[in-house]
Amino acid sequence: MKTLADTGEDALIRRLVKNLPHDPDVLAGPGDDCAVVRAPERGRHLLLKTDTVVEGVHFTPETKPGLIGRKALARVVSDFAAMAAVPRHALVTLIAPSGTPLRRVEQLYLGLRAEAARHAVSIVGGETSRGPALIVTVSMTGEAPAGRWIPRNAARAGDLLLVTGRLGGSIRGRHLRFEPRLAEARWLARHLPVHAMMDLSDGLAKDLPRMAAAAGLGFEVEMQSLPRARGVTTEQAWGDGEDYELLLAVSPRVKPAALAAWRGAFPRLPLTRIGTLTRKPSTSLAPGGWDHFG
Amino acid sequence: MKTLADTGEDALIRRLVKNLPHDPDVLAGPGDDCAVVRAPERGRHLLLKTDTVVEGVHFTPETKPGLIGRKALARVVSDFAAMAAVPRHALVTLIAPSGTPLRRVEQLYLGLRAEAARHAVSIVGGETSRGPALIVTVSMTGEAPAGRWIPRNAARAGDLLLVTGRLGGSIRGRHLRFEPRLAEARWLARHLPVHAMMDLSDGLAKDLPRMAAAAGLGFEVEMQSLPRARGVTTEQAWGDGEDYELLLAVSPRVKPAALAAWRGAFPRLPLTRIGTLTRKPSTSLAPGGWDHFG
To answer: In CA terms, which of A51, A157, A280, B45 is 20 to 30 Å from B60?
Structure first.
């Protein structure tokens, strides 16, 4: 079985980036010291995000490599969704032991490429290095009209808390196959008075306190209202990580017609009110959620 | 001794990004799902690069953490130098075992921040995860006027090969303390007929064949002319990696006055002619240089 050490770095990179599709805004792709792309047009801002998946933390040695690649890319797309932005160009850093089978890395990359294509993202460069475990870091640019991206920290007291989808139990498989809520986020930003938005990566129990604290607010959650994935408990819906659903703070003056329009636009994806942001900061955070060093 | 596990992810990030200096083009920095920055102005292109340093590959457990941070950032700046571009905004991904002392990571980050400040780069976000070793990935944006960046692949037969500085023996310490040739590269692109440029990260023996092959050319090197760092052999100057000097392909019609002006502008940094690019592709590459999976 051919390994990365047998293949060598240059041949590996040639194989991975062969026939990589590029949008016309890519002026120099893999193979130069930097990638060169056309900048966002006047009136649009540039958005930047990086994220990483580590063997033993975000996937196991048994995870199918195509799904590792898919997850590595989709996690970052989910962050652009959280800003109601459009992802554009990606850089991929691949760290792997020298003895890793070439085929495993190629399949991982095919998963990355397929997921990038689904979101019209171009992979424009990257880096490879040997290392003690398989680690994939994806850095991405995106863009949004100036003043039209949705921050995490601008929630207001009295805002309604909404979440998309169903929460909890992602570890059973959804953490590898989730759909970044890109179209949904842009729809919500256009049709609802959204003050703040984020994606749920570490679990509602950790991410909601972050959104509230960023605005100096507290929160009240009606635990029984949490939309639960099939077969999970309320505690799991509250504490489990890697839902990659959207959490929104929306003005209480949101029109019922807007919520009805959501059901028309996305009939299979629930949008659920789970609570309220309060003026009084929460003095102790609810336990649960995922700490990367815990 | 306080570790990352004792500190927790949110508190770690708060400590690392505290008082992070930002240029006025940064509209949202760490703490949101994505960073938001003003895009390059009309007529300028956006450049993207990512690079990574891995414990046991690019530094050892004994390396001073501030120097690890410095190297992680400077390597990427060196790639912007290689394009004659200006680096702007950086994202930092930090992977570390849970038992890593907090102080080690804080010192690493101080090294990163100091090196970023030296090159007027703003750190605008990043990511942390636990993992099997200390790994730092830096992704960076930069910009250059349209049509004014220097590619790697546009060398022409008959071009002179020039290198900045002195090569070899970087492993003794220079690989941690090198100076990215940012100002030098922009000077060279402005004053010399530079067709192609790259930075020497894997060693001349590996990087020169890459530059030649990218243009379908071969090369001839006068080995005795290689500018050697103090105490290194010609073989080391040829084969050692991590010089982070510039390799240039320059029109043979370069004016002697331009080379004399270089000596006036950068009196302490040699610019040495080491050979020529040839029409006939090299059929066998010279041995040496650094393969990341070898």
So the answer is: A51
A160-278: CATH superfamily: PurM-like C-terminal domain (3.90.650.10)
What are the tens digits of pLDDT across the range B73-115?
999 999 999 999 999 999 999 999 999 999 999 999 999 999 9
Stretch 111-140 of chain A: residues touching chain B, C-beta under 8 Å? 124-133, 135, 137, 139
Give the Cβ contact number of residue B256 at 10 Å. 7
Q: What element of type H or E holds B40?
A: none
- The pLDDT confidence band at residue B178, using thresholds 50, 70 and 90, is very high
Q: What is the pTM of this model?
A: 0.94
Residue A178 three-state SS: coil
Same fold, A4-145 and A160-278: no
The answer to whether the CB atoms of A45 and B56 lie below 8 A apart is: no
pLDDT of residue A48: 98
- Among residues B233, B249, B245, B250, which one has the least CA distance to residue B288? B233
Using pLDDT thresholds of 50, 70 and 90, give the confidence band for residue B22: confident
Q: Is residue B254 a contact partner of residue B159, using CB atoms and an 8 Å limit?
A: no
Answer with the residue of higher pLDDT: A118 or B292. A118
Within 10 A of B153 (CB to CB), how many other CB atoms are there?
Answer: 19
- Tell me if B65 sits within 8 A of B105, measured CB to CB: yes
Task: Record the tokens describing residue B223, joined without a space.
Answer: 């080995």
| A152: contact with B, CB 8 A cutoff | yes
Q: Cα(A83)–Cα(A196) distance, rounded to whole angstroms?
A: 9
Alpha-carbon gap, residue B117 to B132, rounded angstroms? 30
CATH architecture for segment(s) A4-145 = 2-Layer Sandwich (3.30)
Residue labelled with tokens 């105490």: B231
pLDDT in tens, A167-209: 999 999 999 999 999 999 999 999 999 999 999 999 999 999 9
Show residues of chain B in contact with A144, CB under 8 Å.
Answer: 36
Strand order in the sheet with A194-199: A194-199, A246-250, A160-164, A271-278, A218-221
**How far is B70 from B176, CA to CA, in rounded Å?**
7
* Shortest Cα distance, chain B CAs vs residue A268, angstroms: 26
At B120, phi and psi to the nearest 5? 60, 35
Indicate the domain borders of chain A: 4-145, 160-278
Are residues B220 and B184 in contact, defined by beta-carbon separation less than 8 angstroms? no
Judged against a pLDDT cut of 60, whether residue A286 lies above it is answered with: no
Place A31 in a pLDDT band, splitting at 50, 70 and 90. Answer: confident
The interface predicted TM-score (ipTM) is 0.93
Report yes or no: B46 and B86 within 8 Å, Cβ to Cβ: no
Q: Give the span between the Cα atoms of B137 and B131, in whole angstroms.
A: 13
Please enumerate in sequence order all residues whose Cβ is within 8 A of that of B65, keeping only pairs 6 or more positions apart, or say none.
Answer: B104, B105, B107, B108, B111
Least Cα distance to A270 among A157, A162, A196 occurs for A162
